[in-house]
Amino acid sequence: MKFGILGAGSWGTAFAKLLAENGQQVMLWARRKELAEQLICERENKDYLPGVKLPSQILTTTDIEELENFCEVLVIAVPVKYVETTLSKLKKGSKIVLNLSKGIDEKMRTVGKIVSELNCFETYAVLSGPCHAIEVSHRLPTSVVVASEDQSVAELLQKVISNSYFRVYTSKDVAGVEISGAMKNVIAIAAGVIDGLGGWHNAKASLIARGIHEIAKFGLAYGAKDPLTFMGLAGIGDLVVTCTSPYSRNRYVGEMIGKGKRLDEVLANMKMVAEGVNTVKPLLQLSKTLDVETPICGKVYEVLFEGKDPKAAIEELMKRPLKPEMAFQTICP
């Protein structure tokens, strides 16, 4: 199959490498001309995936029309805040769109909602799970899920993407998979704050457990089809790795905040986007619309944007009204 990948960041580049090694035809679109030239001449993405040599058969372009004319499957791998403007440059759409990006834009939309509103694509799928680009690029064992309402498309993508080190499961729960991917980034910022304050193991384990509960409550209210999605790769799997991995951008942002850094200086020193920073505000707006409590995400917003002291935010969470632990099944409809 012919895959056109929008975005030559770490994950877009690693995914291009994966597909090329599977024998698929791949074209990678880079916004910046100098990055495209680097990919062509040096077969390496030194900005986002240094030290990883790329297969020579990966084509590279800065011409979005060329990418569109080339591909059968359009892959979205740009930051969520750029998805709408990037897709709006396309002229004829594509039969299959596969999304790799995780977040909610300022208009309170997942990528699936953005694609649906553009109404120029036949079938939408989303791939998510614990899949740090650096590990995938080094062929380390990774498992993910690809969700689409069209089961035949999910199974087709599963077949062509899977290999000896990258295993793909299928799902029909597009909303559940997308919400899991968006919210885990916000929870991971909170996990990073804990690391920055001293790396408290009890606190982080509690955060992950209550975090998946918060994600599941919100996701089901948003329209997720299967509660078990949140117990799978896109849910607890991705949450655990994003809250604990040294590769996690969102965890890193929280860690620096926990150590006393300002958000603006942390972001200024990062090459890559921490999606949780952009997601938390529209997420909280959506939670009000859906009448769902999201206390962890709320405190993350206060720490990032309202100057709340991280220790005070944790204390306020700990002093919330006492209640029975709500078992996971009791939040399911």
Broad shape = globular
Tell me which CATH architecture of the largest domain applies here: 3-Layer(aba) Sandwich
Overall structural domain count = 2
Number of strands: 10
What portion of the residues fall into strands of 2 or more residues?
Answer: 15-25%
InterPro entries: 6-PGluconate_DH-like_C_sf (IPR008927), 6PGD_dom2 (IPR013328), G3P_DH_NAD-dep (IPR006168), G3P_DH_NAD-dep_C (IPR006109), G3P_DH_NAD-dep_N (IPR011128), NAD(P)-bd_dom_sf (IPR036291)
GO molecular function: glycerol-3-phosphate dehydrogenase (NAD+) activity; glycerol-3-phosphate dehydrogenase (NADP+) activity; NAD binding
Enzyme class: oxidoreductase
GO cellular component, one term: cytosol
Kindly summarize this structure in a few lines.
This protein is of the alpha/beta class and 333 residues long. Helix content is 50%, strand content 15%.
